Known about the structure:
Elements: H1 2-11, H2 16-27, E1 32-35, H3 42-53, E2 57-61, H4 69-72, E3 75-78, E4 83-86, E5 95-99, H5 106-109, H6 113-118, E6 120-123, E7 126-129, E8 135-140, H7 153-156, E9 161-163, H8 170-177, H9 182-187, H10 195-206, H11 212-227, H12 237-253, H13 261-277, H14 282-295
Parallel strand pairs: 1-8, 1-9, 2-5, 5-8
Antiparallel strand pairs: 3-4, 6-7
Amino acid sequence: MADFHNFTTQKLKGRTKQARVALAAMLTGGHILIEDIPGVGKTTFALMLARLSGLSLKRIQCTNDMLPSDILGPTIWHPGQLEFIFKPGPIFSPLLLVDELNRAPSKTQSGLLQAMEERKISIDGNDLPLPIPFIVMATQNPNDGVGNNPLPESQIDRFSISFRLDIPTPEIEVEMIQQTDILQTVQSMPQLLELHHFNSAKELVNNIFIHPDLLQYVMRLLETARRWPQRSMLLSTRAGRDLVLISRALALIDQEKMVLPGHIQEAFPYVCAHRLGGDKGVEFGQKMAAQILEQVAVS
């Protein structure tokens, strides 16, 4: 994990914070939503994280005519066996990259709901388990763009964290626009983690101690956010659970044995921005999260 942090600090300049919290989410099996305008590198950033993590990746490019079977897999008539045979779709992958999720129709978006919560899908009355881990990393454009279908609240809440990449600083952008082959750059990156890191991470994260006083701090943040007049969504209990998990994972990355107040404060905007912003977007939610952190004292 130290290698991951050191590499992203050097190679993902200007986006180290996002990579760090994304790693924390992946260690907990959480799902990640990246929102920003087209052309700032959302998909490339996601591909880089996938490469560094070492997890097997499958990618879906969403369009406005997609069907749920394009994600879950089709059921095809097999003449030789005189029966319908289910052909597993791209969802059967440890890491599923869903590009431009809010371009897909609502019915297709809903195809991910059960998978993201229960780590299984139901086909023709049969429950089919998904790989362990199973992580959805989705990108979306701002909802005010043409041809977008805002995600329902139930799906927004299933993403553990969200963030924007934003336009980089001029110095970093100069380096980026000189890259002639982005795909080659991604493929040349080393694999810094392996599957066993993610399989063992859950127990390690759960063993990180969080003081009861900090749990009360988490509750004050949640209660303040729920009363916030501009919020779009009511923060759920799932949001509180994600906040604690991501904070513990950040402590693990820092090689701490217990959660510190700074871990909660670092995690809060990422865990709550998409929930607070709702259909108004992650940027709107980030501003509210920053205001809430300023208002709520640690003790």
